[in-house]
Write a structure and sequence with these properties.
By secondary structure, this protein is mainly α. Helix content is about 55%, strand content about 5%. It has a domain of about 90 residues: Arc Repressor Mutant, subunit A (Orthogonal Bundle).
Length: about 150
């Protein structure tokens, strides 16, 4: 299963917000620059994250985005599902009625187990954990995609 760029960029943007929020909202253009993401595309992602209840936006000259909840309260599973939708390697996992063989299909059982394990990992992982891991990997220029501005 492959996640879309929307989901990958959304998770990176949330990590960035967790790293760079210093009492004032973070501008989309700052996140976009640090992450190497189109500002226009990132704005759409940020609006989706806001609608899903992860962000708040502040308008005006000192405006931007901030996390609406503490990083330890944000499970990556919820973020991924908000941006990606249901997480199923094949359609019949979510909609059993699509296949008359669903009740007899050993392959479907495998796909269901794969989905369940992936959801467990994403549910155990919080934004706080990813922020801490990113800090440990380094935030300076030349050490990944993050750098001080």
């Amino acid at each position: 299963m492959r996640f879309s760029t929307r989901t990958r960029y959304g998770v990176r943007a949330l990590i960035d917000l967790g790293l760079y929020y210093k009492g004032r909202p973070v501008l989309v253009k700052e996140i976009a620059k640090r992450q190497g993401i189109s500002e226009r595309y990132l704005e759409h992602i940020m609006l989706a994250l806001k609608k899903a209840g992860f962000l708040r936006s502040i308008k005006g000259g000192k405006g931007g985005y901030a996390l609406l909840r503490l990083p330890e309260e944000i499970k990556i599973k919820d973020v991924v599902m908000a941006l990606e939708g249901p997480l199923s390697p094949v359609e019949c996992v979510e909609r059993k009625e699509l296949c008359e063989r669903s009740n007899l299909c050993a392959a479907r059982e495998l796909w269901c187990r794969m989905r369940d394990e992936m959801l467990k990992i994403l549910d155990r992982t919080t934004l706080k954990e990813l922020i801490e891991r990113q800090k440990a990997k380094g935030m300076n220029k030349g050490e990944g995609v993050y750098y001080e501005i």
